[in-house]
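note to self: dont lose this again. the chain is below, predicted strucutre after it. 108 aa total, dont forget to put it in the shared folder this time
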Amino acid sequence: MTDSDQPPTPTEQRRLEALEETPHAHLFDGEPQTIRLALADGERIPAHQHPDRELVLHVLEGHLTVSLGNDEYDVREGDVVRFDGAQEISPKAQADTTALLVLAQRAD
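---
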């Protein structure tokens, strides 16, 4: 069976406001992993890795300081950052923040 023989992925739609889990709420099952991140002002996610993933972080509202390895990034409402999940990751909210994370499997 080739890729073109695979049935199409069904279209799914979710509202971020309807998700209640904090700080992480999974929007959809399966790949790519899509997560709503909600952090209160001053809240931090401890340093961790996603070694087999590439990540895209879109801050929908608020302001994060994101530690990536030895570097720190100031990520504000409307900003989008793409990075390698193999490095140590630790976001900290500088204000109440809602962000969308997409974790895609590494292609290599």
